Amino acid sequence: MRGIQLKGLHRVTAKGHVYYYTHRGRGGLRIKTSAAIGTAEFMAAYNEAVKKLKSKPSGNVLELVRAFTQSTEFTGLAPRTQTDYQKHLKAIETKWDKLPIAALGDRRVRGDFKEWRDKLATKSLRQADYAWTVLQRVFSVAKDRGKISVNPCEKGGRLYEADRTGKLWTDNDVEQFMKVAPVHLHLPLMLALWTGQRQGDLLQLPWSAYDGQFIRLRPSKGRGRVRLVIPVGAPLKAVLDATRRRSPLVLVNSDGLAWTAGGFSSSWRKACARAGVVGVTFHDLRGSAITRLAEAGCTVPEIASITGHSLRDVEAILDAHYLGRTTTLAMSGMAKLERSVKLTVKPSTASN
Q1: Do strands 214-217 and 228-231 pair parallel, antiparallel, or not at all (unpaired)?
Q2: Which CATH number fits domain 171-335: 1.10.443.10, 3.30.300.20, 3.40.30.10, 3.40.50.2000?
Q3: pTM to 2 decimals?
Q4: Do 145 and 73 form a contact (C-beta atoms < 8 A)?
Q5: Between 171-180 and 261-275, two packed helices, what is the crossing angle to 10 degrees?
Q6: What's the gap between Cα 280 and its chain centre?
Q7: Is beta strand 10-14 parallel, antiparallel or unpaired with respect to 17-21?
Q8: For 210, which DSSP code?
Q9: 144-193 pLDDT, tens per residue?
Q10: For 28-77, what is each residue's pLDDT tens digit?
């Protein structure tokens, strides 16, 4: 029935199929019917979904999940992160919605949650960790609000560890990419390498953030999301100043349009393949930027002020992931030692 309007009704088209939800975004419930909108069957399904949505769960995990989605800890997340959380929140609701809050104080319930994570891990270790993190976050907010006294998912450990040791963009990688890749992909590389920012933040970077000397932005992730003021190095400035502004956004595709995350990733992979750059990703430019700054002699606070990492995160990245195979800092350190130590014992020339 064309023109009908129902409060909160949201239409989603996926793979050629149309689905309706009671609301857009968090808390929305799918209207489970294939009947045409406006029919009696559709209205019955819609009213049932609305009734279920309005019913306030009490005394169970579903109540905690619903409270979490209304909290600033959730609403303050970046839109992409909220979307990622939603997938796991739905899975948590399906599995644990009727679990009484009182049961969370039983030490055995942690084992039940661990078994659930183990089953998820058979498909993906990373997603199992993510689901655990979301569940832990739900309980953390509930505990902070005084709804529960104990968080059974604290300190659960990780099943998946990404080994990025040695995953650095070398000077040769950069040179080869710049030679072979399309011109509109040169600036993304330079921005990532000279600012250390995430792909998502760079794809949304407006020209208004650049004043010819600094780039000012607020990262979409990270604790506090402190606004950064990043000095623009001469090589990056040369590329920025030479770029024609075809959009309010700095980075655009070959048609001058804003990138989608998927479109950019696909184009980037193809460009890397043509350039023979293997074993590294766009995300590795972020770690490479940190390493380059460290090798140039920058302190941890100086690096953090550019990339937006916490001091602890910079140290952890340098220690665990990126400096394990580089000799630049080791050579620099040895040279400093040689300059500071006076050789007081002459080497023996006597033969044994």
Answers
A1: antiparallel
A2: 1.10.443.10
A3: 0.61
A4: no
A5: 100
A6: 17
A7: antiparallel
A8: B
A9: 999 999 999 998 888 866 665 568 898 999 999 999 999 999 999 999 99
A10: 677 877 788 878 888 888 888 777 666 656 688 999 999 999 999 998 88
